[in-house]
Amino acid sequence: MSLAHRIIPCLDTDGTRVVKGVNFVGLRDAGDPRALAARYNKEGADELVVLDIAASRDRRPTFLETIRRVAAELSIPLTAGGGIQTLEDGRAVVRAGADKVTVNTAAVARPELISELSREFGAQAVVLAIDAKRNGRHWDVMVRGGRESASRDVVEWAREGVSLGAGEILLTSVDRDGTQIGFDTELTREISEAVTVPVIASGGAKLPKHFVDIFKEGAADAALAASIFHDGVQPIRALKEFLFKNGVEVRWPC
């Protein structure tokens, strides 16, 4: 795992436009993916994630074109996913310009997909996205855009995913998504302590302190956010300066 902590903007798209909601619902238009990618590349983002949250087969050609347009603006790593169900889907995303592929619902339904992708591209290029929702004293794995429970424990699934070949975990708190009340540090630490690969925390960010908390208390390797970056609430350069001043190592120059 890297010593420097990464800041990663996320572009949730409907195939052509960036959208954002709260708790995975109530989506609104948030801009053009290519323009936002160019902005984040210039502002000092460490990586970028672009997801097709519609993820239906008829939107796939549209999403691949979005990946191409986004990748053309970047000098930083690009992770792409949403609706990847087969090795060929993964190949298409990589051919379009992604450095890493991310899988979620399809991997829960058919875990061997993780191994297939890992053998093809290497574990470092396979990101297992896990949407987690609290259920009493533990968290359930959620699928289909956070709408359905997979009746699986998040910690157990994270361990299994890594054993199958995932080289990174993208962990999203469904409870915190879009709320801007802070990351779920307890959830993130549980996963960070359970696996041997980097964990990207997602869901709930707003204040610079939230990022300090997730790195120091949640033991995250990276932090992902969307609306606060899209809306200019938290400029990436200023965020990195705040983190550095508060004892969090970040990647420079920024």
Summarize it:
This protein is of the alpha/beta class. 36% of the residues lie in helices and 27% in strands. The chain has one domain: Aldolase class I (TIM Barrel), CATH 3.20.20.70.
Rg measurement, Å: 16 Å
Strand order of the largest sheet: 1-4-5-6-7-10-11-12
Low-confidence stretches: none
By helix and strand content, what is the structural category? alpha/beta
Number of strands: 12
Order of helices and strands: EEEHEHEHEHHEEEHEHEHEHH
Distinct helical segment count:
10
| Percentage of residues in helical conformation | 25-40%
Average of per-residue pLDDT values: 91
> Oligomeric status of the shown chains?
single chain
The rounded distance between the terminal residues' Cα atoms is 20 Å
- Give the total of domains: 1
Q: Would you identify the CATH H-level superfamily?
A: Aldolase class I
CATH class: Alpha Beta
- Could you say what the CATH architecture is? Alpha-Beta Barrel
Strand content: 25-35%
CATH fold-level topology? TIM Barrel
Describe the structure.
The chain is globular, with a radius of gyration of 16 Å. The longest helix is centred in the first third of the chain and has 12 residues, at 60-71. It has 10 helices and 12 strands. The protein has helices at residues 33-43, 60-71, 87-95, 105-109, 112-121, 154-164, 185-194, 208-216, 227-230, 236-245; strands spanning 6-13, 18-22, 25-31, 48-52, 78-81, 100-103, 126-135, 138-143, 148-153, 168-173, 199-202, 222-225. The model has no long low-confidence stretch (mean pLDDT 91). It is an alpha/beta fold and 254 residues long. The strands form 2 sheets. It has an 8-stranded parallel barrel, surrounded by 7 helices. It has one domain (6-245): TIM Barrel (Alpha-Beta Barrel).
